[in-house]
Design a protein that fits this description.
369 residues, alpha/beta, 5-stranded parallel beta sheet, globular, binds 5-amino-5-deoxy-1-O-phosphono-D-mannitol, cytoplasm, repeat, glutamine-fructose-6-phosphate transaminase (isomerizing) activity
């Protein structure tokens, strides 16, 4: 049932192109209109929304962090993303015009469920993004958009994450459509870019051997740091989470702009630092800033592992290890940038002799608070 792979995780990483394509399938018509049929919140209600709040845990929370960038950019609706376990207990401000998006692979995560119950009690509308048909979270929500990743068995979430991102982009575009901040042709162009992602993830998967080799050389390290900016920041957090849960190594993700506010003190000779580099096109100011961050940490002895867009000549000289990813629009980059981090963590776990699919102390769905 592992389809010839040693671990479910490897199988699920390999299934990502299909999972992404399946999640897009049938959700757009030729005129560029999204038809998210399962979403049962009337357009009239969505037009009145004044705030979006995303609640989730773990990897799903990282998807929600990325969604915030897309939602605010495409719809201009203020959006917050919060850990479900924090949200529930801090008396959040919600009303009938708040749209809460609960993201969960399993649909059974207790913290997320409690957050959505609390939100509904306050009158907010809840949309679930979920991978498990008929599970509790979608059943208790006002609306649901299913991710079509298929069953995810490995504890470490991979394909569910990519499909959560796709679903979030669809919801962001849909909100833009009903509120008139995004028109058919603009939506179509993003959808076209999204449609290419499956092939691009495939390309990434085909070039992963050097990443695996690199991971094996790091098996005796104590710590790995991850840096990113903009949507690359949640990607850095996700890379660190994967490494913690699979390799049982200390790993931390930082916003690269925060380096000089503290974390740079951690940099010492030979410490591996993975940096997710934004595209040099588009918001190139972010790119330039991260290149100088890389120079700073390298000058202090860090071993830089750089994930950058193919052909990014400005960053290459500062990369001890360069992992190239396909050219994508800035907001969509997490869909390709996360994949090497999954492979990296999986290989490190294997090299350290850990149980990949069933890491110690963890459960696939966390049904207690
Ligand atoms: O089923 P959910 O998406 O609600 O699960 C949330 C987290 O427990 C989950 O993403 C967890 O962080 C994974 N083990 C990460 O790989």
């Amino acid at each position: 049932e592992k389809g010839g792979y040693d671990y479910f995780m490897l199988k699920e990483i390999a299934e990502q192109p299909k999972a992404v394509a399946d999640t897009l399938l049938g959700r757009i018509d030729l005129a560029g209109n999204l038809c998210l049929d399962e979403v049962r919140i009337p357009a009239s209600v969505l037009r009145e929304v004044t705030k979006v709040v995303i609640v989730a845990c773990g990897t799903a929370y990282h998807a929600g962090m990325i969604a915030k960038y897309a939602i605010e950019h495409w719809t201009r609706i203020p959006c917050e993303t919060e850990l479900a376990s924090e949200f529930r207990y801090r008396d959040p401000i919600l009303d009938q015009r708040t749209l809460v998006i609960a993201i969960s692979q399993s649909g059974e995560t207790m913290d997320t469920l409690m957050a959505l119950r609390h939100a509904r009690e306050q009158g907010a509308k809840v949309l679930a993004i979920c991978n498990t048909n008929g599970s509790t979270i979608p059943r208790e929500s006002d609306a649901v958009l299913y991710t079509h990743a298929g069953p995810e068995v490995a504890v470490a979430s991979t394909k569910a994450f990519l499909t959560q991102l796709v679903a979030c982009y669809l919801v962001a575009l849909y909100l833009g459509q009903v509120r008139g901040t995004k028109w058919g042709d603009e939506i179509l162009s993003v959808i076209r870019e999204l449609s290419e992602i499956a092939t691009q993830v495939d390309e990434v998967l085909e070039t992963m051997e050097p990443v695996r080799e690199l991971a094996r050389t790091l098996a005796d390290k104590n710590t790995v740091l991850f840096l990113g900016r903009h949507v690359g920041f949640p990607v850095a957090l996700e890379g660190a989470l994967k490494l913690k849960e699979l390799a049982y190594m200390h790993a931390e993700g930082f916003a690269a702009g925060e380096l000089k506010h503290g974390p740079i003190a951690l940099i010492e000779q030979d410490v591996p630092v993975v940096v997710v580099v934004p595209s040099p096109r588009g918001r190139s100011v972010l790119h330039d800033k991260i290149v100088s961050n890389i120079q700073e940490i390298r000058a202090r002895g860090a071993r830089t592992i750089v994930i950058a867009e193919r052909g990014d000549a400005a960053v290459a000289p500062y990369a001890d290890h360069l992992i190239e990813i396909p050219v994508t629009p800035t907001l969509l980059q997490p869909l390709v940038a996360t994949v090497p981090l999954q492979v990296f963590a999986c290989e490190l776990a294997t090299a350290r002799g850990n149980e990949v699919d069933q890491p110690r102390n963890l459960a696939k769905s966390v049904t207690v608070e």
